[in-house]
Each structure stands twice: as C-alpha cells, then as structure tokens.
Amino acid sequence: MTPEIRRFLPDDEPALYDICLRTGDSGEDATALHEDPALLGHLYVGPYLSLAPDLAFVAEDEHGVAGYVLGVRDTRIFEHECDRDWWPDLRERYPLTTFPPSGRDAGLVRLMHDPPRAADEVVAEYPAHLHIDLLPRLQGRGYGRRLMDTLFTALRAARVPGVHLGVGLANERATAFYHHLGFTELRRDRWGLTLVQYL
Q1: Beta strands in 73-171 (DSSP E)
Q2: Which part of the chain is the N-acetyltransferase domain (predicted)?
C-alpha cells in the first residue's frame, strides 16, 4: 500500500498520541522519558483533534497511521477555546502535585496549568499554527511536505494569511525541513525558534 494522506478520523486518535510520544524528544522516541505516556498527547494532539478536527490530516501506510499534521486557523481563538473547553478537565486529572517537581512529567503538567501564549507580534501576521510529526518509516520520503501542503491548502481556502510554528533548538533536522519548505525565523527564545510563513 502506497502511503496516503487523508483527513483525521476519530479512531485515529490513539495512533496520533503514540506518534507524538515516539517523536517527542526532539524527533526521537520519548517513551522512556515519561511516566505517563499520554501527557505529550494531551498537550500537543488532543486539543487540536477536539477543537479543530477539520484541520487534522494523517499519513497512513500498510502498517497504519505513521504521521500527522494538526493546525488551527486562529491561535488566539484556539487559546481561549482551550482555556474554556480543554484544560479544565486535565487540570482536575493532573494537579500540580501529581509528579515529583523536578521531572519531565511535572513540567508538562505545569504547562497544562499555565499554558504559553503566542506573542502578539507573531499572531498579528501569522495567526495560524501547526504541529507535524512523522515516524521514521515515513521520514525523508516526501510525506512531510505532502502533509504540510494539504494543511496549507485548507488554510488558504479559509483565507488565513500566515502560519507559525515552534521548534526546539536541538531539533536541527526539523528546522532544516521547515526552512526547506520556506519558513523563516521570526523569533529566537530560550526554548527554541518561532518560524513563520505567509500562505
């Protein structure tokens, strides 16, 4: 089976959570780094599937879903919707005292309770944002570009002027991929880079 790009279906959610974990250490497998394997997905997959499922696309081969791209049209609206509809239940399930304070999982829980906000200078011209992850078996074969092109087509149809994304400083392979697609660096912070592109 030649891998296909298609819209997300509700049954895909466990696979997307798994891909998020298996690429969650700057593109490498983060399974051994987390006591709770669902935490990364709760932060970087779940809210998109819940609040913007029409902008969720997957790459599927004969072994199953092996990649995804998730996006939102308006980051500010998405942040407000998360505050209203996504974070409250998670904050009840994961109090700040759930994990030892020095661990990675504790850091993710802190993000649930105090999520970062996109900078005004970013969303003014690039209101959309996205997350993309592919398992190694699909990397380097053009499927990342195909996923991005599929999302960009949907964003352009919605008359979105620009899109941004964040990438950690250690993830050099992903940064090179984004630059190859035409993204440029807008901000450099301690956590990483903000890359942008007009649509």
Answers
A1: 128-134, 162-168
A2: 3-199
